[in-house]
Amino acid sequence: MAEGRAADIGTGPSWVGQALDGTGDWKVRTRAPFLLGLLMLFDSWDSIVIAYALPVIIADWTLSPLAAGSLISAGYGGQLVGAIFFGSVAERYGRLPILRWLVAIMSVLAGFCAIADSYNHLLVIRLVQGFAIGGALPIAITYVNEVAPNATRGRFFGNFQFLMIAGFGLASVVSALVVPDYGWRPVFAVGLIPLLILPFTFMLPESPRWLAARGRIADAVKALARLGCGEGQARPGVDAANQPAEARVPFALLLAPGVRGEFVTMLLLWFLTYLVSFGLTTWMPSLYVGVFKVPLKEALSFGFITSTIMILVPLLLRQTIDRVGRRPPALIGTALGGIALFGIPFLPISAVPMVATLAITGAVGIAFGAMVLWPYSAEIFETRIRSLALGTMSSTARAASMLTPLLVGGILQATGSVTYIFLTFGAASVLAALIWIFLTRETAGREIA
Predict the structure, then answer these.
(1) Which of 61, 82, 161, 169 could anchor a disulfide with 135, C-beta 3.0 to 4.6 Å?
(2) What phi and psi values does residue 118 have, to the nearest 5 degrees?
(3) What are the distances in angstroms from CA 252 to CA 258, 266, 315?
(4) Domains of the chain: which residue ranges?
(5) Which residues touch 191 (CB under 8 Å, ≥6 apart)?
């Protein structure tokens, strides 16, 4: 790209990368993706559980459709702001301290959701909780990528991503078993569980890449030793001790000449991908019932099939992404998904099995693109701006998620047809595939700066 590459801004603390790839007893490091993955499982849970609790909340408090929609939008609105704000904070004060505080706040507020006694109380709690939910995930992903070995970074991250994604499916299954008989409050109370996991994260040191980038060379060496680096493997260069530490990381760094082109490319990918992903996830059950006249039970079964397949996607990526690279699964998935979505408008309303097959194909295809975006984005931005960049990308995804209900609802209201909905989703998915093909570069196995 004409603007240059994000990872080419500076040489970065390459001695840290060499140490992370060296020999040693890496038992502590191997626990990082599992510990943080468990925490982010509940981040995903807290993010989506409102959708499964909402039907009962509506009945309990006699909510209007607008009020019910506001409960969902409040959480996403908070996540949008939190992702950007706390990404910047983590660049200044470190990954783990900020992450621990955010997880603690997220969990405590989940408990408050469970005992909320009015609509207004729950609305405010969900908004504030959204700040923590949105801020925690990009920081956790940043940390996992920064301590991973280069050669197997995809598999290392895959352990984390599987647990993170499992939160969505687990919330669906548990809610179906609990909410009908016990109401909506218990599923919010489950969000307190991370408080039991959080103390175990203190076995993990701060990111050695972040410490080195801040000029804290001695602390970086100690962090590497705690992770399991072998004696003598961490050898800072002569220039490392003289590396300046920036007091703050301004957003303007993302628009610097060496970063701007790749930053804009990633913004487009995140927006297009999550516009389709969130749109299919939230609207397909309603479209099955309202447009294709599918019985509710059958419509929910299609959703269950989709969720089950999606849980398997990170497992497949974990096993293959280091060998085939990041780009092929993303570009093939988004291309095939887009083609499948383009096919739906040309089917008769009565062709429900074929409609469901194409819709599931589209959802799974775009899921490959969505799941690759996290590790890929963490790899193309250098350490000093990584958390801020990931926070901005995550915020862009939340913005797309907030726009989707307006887009789909507006098209349905204006045309009364699903034709333009699927054409829009298909076009967005294919455009994402073209961006992957022409405007991205491979990062598998490369040292991250």
Answers:
(1) 82
(2) -155, 165
(3) 12, 16, 37
(4) 6-235+255-439
(5) 42, 45, 46, 49, 106, 107, 109, 110, 111, 113, 114
Query: Degrees (nearest 5) of the Cα angle 82, 85, 13?
Result: 120
Do residues 162 and 37 touch, judged by C-beta distance below 8 A?
yes
Crossing angle for the helix pair 260-290 and 352-380, to the nearest 10 degrees? 160
- Give the HSE-up count for residue 388: Cα atoms under 13 Å, Cβ half-sphere: 20
Does pTM top 0.85 for this prediction?
Answer: no
Those residues whose C-beta lies under 8 Å from the C-beta of residue 64, and which sit 6 or more positions away, are none
Query: What are the pLDDT digits (tens) for 234-284?
Result: 777 644 554 555 555 677 888 888 889 999 999 999 999 999 998 887 778
Q: Which residues contact 62 (CB under 8 A, 6 or more apart)?
A: none
| Whole-number Å distance between alpha carbons of 436 and 432 | 6
Which amino acid type is present at position 309?
A: I
| Cα dist from 54 to 49, 50, 106, 188, whole Å | 9, 6, 19, 11
Residue ranges in the chain modelled with pLDDT below 70: 1-13, 65, 237-249, 296-297, 300, 449
Q: Rounded CA gap, 258 and 196, in Å?
A: 43
Tens digits of residue pLDDT in 124-150:
999 999 999 999 999 999 999 999 998
- Residue that the structure tokens 């193309």 belong to: 380
Compute CA distances 440 → 127, 262, 331, 375, 380, whole Å: 35, 8, 10, 14, 10
Round to whole Å and give the CA distance between 362 and 339: 8
Query: How close are the terminal C-alpha atoms of the chain, in Å?
Result: 19
- Which pLDDT score, from 0 to 100, does residue 180 have? 83
Architecture of domain 6-235+255-439: Up-down Bundle (1.20)
